[in-house]
């Protein structure tokens, strides 16, 4: 599927980029740069999402043990990101390609205006033939709002630029029925549907102290990417010429096919909103109205509210059993929602003294998951 893909996001994980978690594997970086240069010659646009800042920072600061305190991790990332950017700039320069560093936070992608700005900058860089190199802006994010693993970031970037494919390079040949480090009977999966709920049970967490999300975050990333129609490949970054061979049509790694309906761009952004400010639980009638009839959510269908959100913020819509079915921008704040829940919209004015909208969440501001 990489053969047909025109715009590709390639993610290289911490376990590959670093030498046992310490410093950068410069030879590996230079090898991927060479492969990406070949993809460019095949007419493809490539965005690289690379981890490695913390490991390189530890090396530069002579720290042997990965710190656990967030402020130390952030300091290491700030030091190490210099090395990461330098190493890629030098490697791509050997192939006469310019690079651009883009450091993103969750806030950059959940604010609609900043999201659109990030998108136009990336599109401009691609038009200029530059290779954007993306990492999380570790230095400014706190625990609660971190992507943490770069798989999530890579999936969000895939959706942001409407890439055709996401290639996640890691230290395993692909996805197995269970963690091959722990289970020698684990069987390799060459093709699956990205939306198959069984995958999450097979995918485990990290197998080493170096990576962050394990296979779990890769499987979730593939499902996210599928919402914009992108297929995902998980493959070993140590496989010789892996990117070039994939682009020639060879079958390497696990293909996670995008088999779910594609969401429109704005709904895509809503679905990718990582942090919601609250939850509202719906009765079964409201769940059906949303899912089967594509209706807006009215206050009468709400049974419970958690959180302290403001008007216009993102909330999660839950089934009576607590499963999230949709995410949307709400028209009333948490206190108002608590007052009008379970009531017909005609009573909103009597209860609140004013009425903004008859809908609690308009269907244009609602993304079904
Ligand atoms: N079902 C599975 N198939 C393959 N690998 C798995 C599976 N479950 C867990 N893993 C683990 O996921 C690890 C890769 O994830 P991670 O360490 O986060 O790498 P990266 O830094 O490349 O993101 C593998 O080393 C492996 O031990
Ligand atoms: N942003 C961090 C990397 C986060 C991380 O470890 O992600 P991953 O490669 O998905 O395990 C860094 O550059 O060190």
TrEMBL record:
ATP binds at residues 11, 170-171, 212-218. It catalyses: L-glutamate + ATP = L-glutamyl 5-phosphate + ADP. Keywords: Amino-acid biosynthesis, ATP-binding, Cytoplasm, Kinase, Nucleotide-binding, Proline biosynthesis, Transferase. It is an enzyme of class 2 (transferase). Its EC number is 2.7.2.11. The keyword Ribosomal protein does not apply. Substrate binds at residues 51, 138, 150. Belongs to the glutamate 5-kinase family. This is Glutamate 5-kinase.
């Amino acid at each position: 599927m990489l053969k047909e893909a025109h715009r590709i996001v390639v993610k290289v994980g911490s376990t590959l980029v670093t030498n046992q978690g310490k410093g950068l594997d410069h030879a590996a970086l230079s090898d991927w740069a060479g492969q990406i240069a070949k993809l460019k010659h095949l007419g493809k646009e490539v965005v690289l999402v690379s981890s490695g800042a913390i490991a390189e920072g530890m090396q530069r600061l002579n720290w042997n043990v990965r710190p656990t305190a967030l402020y130390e991790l952030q300091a290491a990332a700030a030091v190490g990101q210099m090395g990461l950017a330098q190493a890629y700039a030098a490697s791509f320069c050997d192939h006469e390609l310019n690079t651009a560093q883009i450091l993103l936070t969750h806030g950059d992608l959940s604010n609609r205006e900043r999201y659109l700005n990030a998108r136009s900058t990336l599109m401009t860089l691609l038009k200029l033939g530059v290779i954007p190199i993306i990492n999380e802006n570790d230095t400014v994010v706190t625990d609660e709002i971190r992507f943490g693993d770069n798989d999530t970031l890579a999936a969000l970037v895939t959706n942001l630029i409407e890439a055709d494919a996401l290639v996640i390079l890691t230290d395993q040949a692909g996805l197995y029925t269970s963690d091959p480090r722990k289970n020698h009977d684990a069987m390799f999966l060459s093709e699956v549907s990205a939306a198959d709920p069984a995958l999450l049970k097979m995918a485990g967490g990290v197998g080493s102290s170096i990576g962050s999300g394990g296979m779990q975050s890769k499987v979730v990333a593939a499902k996210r990417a599928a919402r914009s129609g992108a297929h995902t490949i998980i493959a070993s970054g140590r496989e010789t010429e892996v990117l070039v061979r994939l682009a020639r049509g060879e079958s390497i790694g696990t293909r996670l096919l995008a088999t779910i309906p594609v969401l429109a761009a704005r709904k895509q952004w809503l679905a990718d909103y990582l942090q919601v400010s609250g939850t509202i639980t719906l009765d079964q009638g409201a769940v059906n109205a949303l899912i089967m009839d594509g209706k807006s959510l009215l206050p009468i269908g709400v049974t419970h509210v958690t959180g302290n959100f403001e008007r216009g913020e993102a909330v999660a819509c839950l089934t009576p059993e607590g499963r999230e079915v949709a995410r949307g921008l709400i028209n009333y704040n948490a206190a108002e929602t608590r007052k009008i829940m379970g009531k017909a919209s005609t009573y909103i004015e009597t209860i609140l003294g004013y009425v903004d909208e008859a809908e609690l969440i308009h269907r244009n501001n609602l993304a079904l998951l």
